[in-house]
Amino acid sequence: MRLASFTDYGMRILMRLASDPEKRFSTAELASQFRVSQHHLTKIVQDLSRGGFVTTQRGAGGGINLARNADDISLGEIVRHLERRFALVECCKEDGGACVMKSRCRLKPRLLAAQEIFLKELDRSTVADCAWSGEPAAA
Amino acid sequence: MRLASFTDYGMRILMRLASDPEKRFSTAELASQFRVSQHHLTKIVQDLSRGGFVTTQRGAGGGINLARNADDISLGEIVRHLERRFALVECCKEDGGACVMKSRCRLKPRLLAAQEIFLKELDRSTVADCAWSGEPAAA
Asked: What is the ipTM, given to two decimal places?
């Protein structure tokens, strides 16, 4: 079972921002701290902004910061937003997918129920619970 | 959040076998019924055999069938086996991945806990609950 690296990086961004809610971060700074592609992070920041998780401001003194209180952003909410275009299995695709079982399938409701439980478990934690100051791990 | 198509097809195979536990299926038959690649199914059948879910027998009168009672194979067990080489996020990779947070990360235990709850929910259902006779869905 996998979350997209898009989601993985999106969560890291929010965890870093949560530690310094007043600071405006640049994508260059985040990319450098996480050692990942700035181009990739830019796309993720745009999606986080679209989801109302961050605000972005252009120009000098601009940057990215959390749009809401860190303790008001649940992990479940983040994952639901960043993963929204991915389907758990074939039949969960928007066009219904190509599986021939269709309405006869008794697996689909069970998978969806398990997925919902996964997300509800993540709803119990917030970005504040996972805030990261940027300090590297002990060697 | 996604399961691999490998896992998706693996579950379909077991659901079909569960409906006819005495019958020996050929991969050609399964591929035809599911309208998927026989080559791909062959690899999945090998992995299901490796996991003790099916037995395979070569030659005339040979084929694939369930190795155990369908009501003794939980969905959680199947997913754990077929998904075992996939990591939920970067740091869950076997080599520890490239995320810089490492031991300072407070997200990882929360993600792993949610994943475990997902799998435990799937442990509550068996392949017998999802057996599919091969009958197509109503038009």
From this structure: 0.94
